[in-house]
Structure formats: structure tokens, C-alpha cells
Amino acid sequence: MATNNEAVVEIAQTAGKFASSIVLQADNKYIDVKSILGLFTTLVNTQSYELHVHGSDAEEAKAAVAAVFAKYDLNVKVVAE
């Protein structure tokens, strides 16, 4: 479980560096990736995720956040808007 905690913190910190809106879709829930609490409740129960990124630095944000998911072997699909 420690790995999940590290992943949550790193994902939220990485997302926080960007101005873009970064939302994780897990099942039928949408979670602001900058919210550590939202991530904690979601990453525990769900196996696959979709990342929705909107904003001025969206491309950089997608790459950075997706890299953190990959680092922790979390299955995320970046959705092209």
C-alpha cells in the first residue's frame, strides 16, 4: 500500500505544477488530480483510468502526469480532446 501513497502524492504534486485542468475518470467518477484526498479514494479501488487535460499547458501536463502513472505501473489512458 505504501507504493499507492507515494503514487498519490507524486501525481498530485506533478499535476499541481500545471495551470491546466487535469481530471481523472475512474469508472463513473471524475476526480481532480490535484486533490490528494480524491486520488486516495480512487487509486485504491480502480484498475484503469482515463486522464482528461484541458488548458494552456495541456500537452506538457499530459506527458508529466502520464509519466508518473507509468512509473507506478498504473494503467492510464490519456484521452485526446
Furnish the topology, listing elements before pairings:
Layout: H1 2-16, E1 21-26, E2 29-32, H2 36-43, E3 48-54, H3 58-71, E4 75-78
Parallel strand pairs: 3-4
Antiparallel strand pairs: 1-2, 1-3
Structure description:
It is a single chain. With 81 residues, the chain is of the alpha+beta class. It has one domain (2-78): Histidine-containing Protein, Chain: A, CATH 3.30.1340.10. 46% of the residues lie in helices and 26% in strands. The chain has three helices and four strands, in the order H-E-E-H-E-H-E. A four-stranded mixed sheet has the order 2-1-3-4, covered by helices on one side.
Briefly summarize what is shown:
The chain is of the alpha+beta class. The protein has three helices and four strands.
Number of strands: 4
SS-derived structural category: alpha+beta
The percent range for helix content is 40-55%
User: How many helices in DSSP terms?
Assistant: 3
Count of the separate structural domains: 1
Q: Identify the strand order in the major beta sheet.
A: 2-1-3-4
Order of helices and strands: HEEHEHE
Biggest pleated-sheet summary? 4 strands, mixed
- The name of the CATH architecture is 2-Layer Sandwich
By CATH, the topology is: Histidine-containing Protein, Chain: A
Determine and state the CATH class: Alpha Beta
**Distance between the terminal alpha carbons, to the nearest Å?**
33 Å
Mean pLDDT: 89
Judging from the principal axes of the Cα atoms, what is the shape?
globular
| CATH H level, superfamily name | HPr-like
Strand content: 25-35%
Which stretches are poorly predicted, pLDDT < 50 over at least 5 residues?
none
What is the alpha-carbon Rg in Å?
A: 11 Å
Protein name: HPr domain-containing protein
InterPro entries: HPr-like, HPr-like_sf
Organism: Paenibacillus segetis
